């Protein structure tokens, strides 16, 4: 089976490493950066790399698009005439509803696109940050659409499990975007807000412990990518922010009113929920 990875950044590079480690020898790479391709070939992540996808696409059985959300539908539009009949495409994008709309309008009937999301990102950038061991034990999500063939859904699930993902769950695109707005995008919004606070100063780290470091880690953010993710999931993220504001206002109110009992109840509720999750 010939597999092409379009975009050899930290996620695409990690997939290339993982597939090679799992025994897939015909893994090919496409990247606009020639140095990235040369490094991937030298390290054995890919069998061969090219800067122009047109050079290899017609021979590919699986095409994994590790691109920004805004690049996915245009890539399909530009290259669909080269797709092999029966080719399976997939993505790693953190938003689904809007991207599915865009892609399904341009996807040829001879191709199947399995929309997927590996739940193990990184604040690092580029292939030098690639590490397939980040996938070991991680979760992944697949958002089936009516045109998907069951055998192709199972194929992508199999590839994810072979490179280390422990659980691959099928969910609707709408549920995906609603929950990702909460568990991922809201967390990034909070981290950015804390770091950008006017209270931050040169002396901040003198007083900071592990909680500050852990919360602010993801503020080291790829602004171009996350701007697209936020805007493509704007309605769901705004809802998550508003629901969070309700909880923050309740905590704030208990402080204003010096209401120790309510404050304890808020903390107790959070403790119980966290223990339930983990």
Q: Termini, distance in Å? A: 39 Å
Proportion in helices: 40-55%
Structural class: alpha/beta
Average pLDDT metric: 95
pLDDT < 50 runs, ≥5 residues: none
Largest sheet descriptor: 6 strands, parallel
Helical run tally: 11
Compose a concise summary of this entry.
With 278 residues, this protein is an alpha/beta fold. 50% of the residues lie in helices and 12% in strands.
What labels describe this entry?
Rossmann fold, 278 residues, alpha/beta, 50% helix, three-stranded mixed β-sheet, 6-phosphogluconate dehydrogenase C-terminal fold, 2 domains
Topology, please?
Blueprint: E1 3-6, H1 10-21, E2 27-30, H2 34-42, E3 48-50, E4 62-65, H3 69-79, E5 88-91, H4 97-104, E6 112-114, E7 116-118, E8 139-142, H5 150-162, E9 167-170, H6 173-195, H7 204-207, H8 210-216, H9 223-232, H10 234-256, H11 260-277
Parallel strand pairs: 1-2, 1-4, 2-3, 4-5, 5-6, 8-9
Antiparallel strand pairs: 7-8
Helix pairs in contact: 3-4, 6-10, 10-11
């Amino acid at each position: 089976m010939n597999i092409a990875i379009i975009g050899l950044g930290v996620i695409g590079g990690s997939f290339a490493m993982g597939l090679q480690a799992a025994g897939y020898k015909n893994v090919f790479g496409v990247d606009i950066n020639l140095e990235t391709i040369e490094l991937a070939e030298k390290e054995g992540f890919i069998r061969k790399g090219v800067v122009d996808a047109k050079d290899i696409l017609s021979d590919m059985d699986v095409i994994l698009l590790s691109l920004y959300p805004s690049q996915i539908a245009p890539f399909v539009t530009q290259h669909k005439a080269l797709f092999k009949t029966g080719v399976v495409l997939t993505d790693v994008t953190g938003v689904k509803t809007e991207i599915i709309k865009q892609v399904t309008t341009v996807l040829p009937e001879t191709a199947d696109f399995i929309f997927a999301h590996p739940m193990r990102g990184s604040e690092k950038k580029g292939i030098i940050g690639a590490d397939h061991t980040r996938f070991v034990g991680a979760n992944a999500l697949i958002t089936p659409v009516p045109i998907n063939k069951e055998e192709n859904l199972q194929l992508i699930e199999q590839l994810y499990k072979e490179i280390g993902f422990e659980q691959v769950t099928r969910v609707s695109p709408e549920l995906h975007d609603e929950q990702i707005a909460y568990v991922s995008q809201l967390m990034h919004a909070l981290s950015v807000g804390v770091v950008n606070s006017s209270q931050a100063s040169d002396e901040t780290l003198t007083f900071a412990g592990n909680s500050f470091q852990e919360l602010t880690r993801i503020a080291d953010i790829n602004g171009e990518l996350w701007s697209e993710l936020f805007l493509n999931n704007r309605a769901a993220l705004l809802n998550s922010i508003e629901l969070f504001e309700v909880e923050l206002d309740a905590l704030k109110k208990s402080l204003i009113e010096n209401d120790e009992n309510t404050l304890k109840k808020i903390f107790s509720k959070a403790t119980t929920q966290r223990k339930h999750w983990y």
